[in-house]
Every structure is written in C-alpha cells, then in structure tokens.
Design a protein that fits this description.
This protein is of the alpha/beta class and 199 residues long. It has one domain: Lambda Exonuclease, Chain A. It contains 7 helices and 7 strands, in the order E-E-H-H-H-H-E-E-E-H-E-E-H-H. Strands 1, 2, 3, 4, 5, 6 and 7 form a 7-stranded mixed sheet that branches. Strand 6 and strand 7 form a beta hairpin. It is globular. Keywords: Antiviral defense, Exonuclease, Hydrolase, Iron, Iron-sulfur, Manganese, Metal-binding, Nuclease.
Length: 199
C-alpha cells in the first residue's frame, strides 16, 4: 500500500520487489488500484508460515557464526528522506561496530542470490543506516530449505545508489501515472495475475 504523508509518497520494500519482477505491477496496483491477490500464491503463503514458525524456534545458532553481539527482531523502519518503509527480520549489531540485516527465505540456495533478494537487503541496509546512524556494508540471507544455510552479501555505495534510483523510478510511475514497458521475459507473464489485462 502506498501511503501519502505530508504530500510525500512512501513505498514498501515489497513494492520494489514487485517492480523488479515487472514494473507494470506498480501501475496496476497503484495507478489502477487492481489488487494482485498474492495471498493465493503458494510461495507467499509458505513464506509467511516460515516467518511465523521462525519466531518460535531458537535462532541463536545462526548468529553465533556471524560475530553478532546484539540483535533486534521484526523491526519496522521507515525513511521519509528515501520514501521507503519495511520490516527487517533481524537487525544484527556486529563486533566490528557495523550493523547488518538478516532475512529468512523459504527457499533453497542454488548458487546465486536473486536480484530481488539482493535489493530487499540493500533497501533494508539503507533504512538501518539512516535510522540507527550506523555503517552497514553487508547483509545476510538464511535459506531455510537448505538446512538454514546463511550467505553473506557485500553492500557497496554503488548498491545504495542503484536502490535509490529504483525508488525514484517507482515514484515516477505512482505520482505521474506513467505506463511502464513490459517485462523482457515472457516466462514471467505465464504466472502473472495481471496477464489477462496486460497489453
């Protein structure tokens, strides 16, 4: 849901992930107000279940390996400056004085980190950096279907700049009602909830 606050638009991290899948998602959801009914999608449902059961299990084993001295769980953070808000599974405060987001994924690790995963973490890092006034130069993904394998990802200043540019592109669609070009991959269209109205 896009929020208007003092005439400034605030988008969710999940909006950015939809945009990276296909930019027209943003147009259909927010310019035409057509919901996508994501609650019916299997992976979304399973992902939510994992996040719920994760709260009930011992997570300390994951963090001991990461030199974490303190953590905060299920943190809602927002940035008026960067027009974004979201929930971070865990904010880890590390021995070297930096912080890092940790995100749990109901997925197997297949030798690569998807672009959507990467930018979810970069946006979380952006929010942590601004709200906690602390350096964030890495992030972690825990793949629950690969025996809770944890992968570290470096975050650079170039990553932050790319994330800010993506936010600007989304705000252009929402505020100006721009109709974006379609996704380059027709494979994405097969499973898309908007395929019957997208031209």
């Amino acid at each position: 849901m896009i929020e208007e606050t003092d005439s400034e638009t605030i988008i969710r991290i999940s909006d950015v992930l939809e945009y990276l899948f296909c930019s027209r998602f943003i147009y259909y959801m927010y310019c035409l107000d057509i919901p996508q009914h994501e609650e019916k999608r299997f992976k979304v449902i399973k992902g939510r279940e994992v996040h719920e059961t994760r709260k009930l299990t011992n997570r300390d084993y994951v963090r001991k390996k990461l030199n974490c001295i303190r953590k905060e769980s299920d943190v809602f953070i927002a940035s008026k400056k960067n027009h974004i808000k979201g929930i971070v599974d865990e904010v880890l405060f590390l021995e070297d004085g930096t912080a890092a987001p940790l995100e749990y994924k109901f997925a197997e690790y297949k030798d690569k980190v998807f672009k959507t995963y990467k930018f979810q973490l970069v946006l979380q890092a952006l929010l942590i950096r601004e709200n906690y006034n602390i350096e964030v130069n890495r992030a972690y993904l825990c793949f629950t279907r690969s025996n809770s394998l944890v992968k570290e990802m470096e975050i650079t200043s170039s990553d932050f700049k790319k994330a800010e540019k993506i936010i600007e592109e989304i705000l252009d669609i929402v505020q100006k009602g721009l109709y974006p070009k379609t996704s380059r991959s027709s494979r994405k269209c097969v499973d898309c909830c908007y395929r019957n109205i997208c031209v």
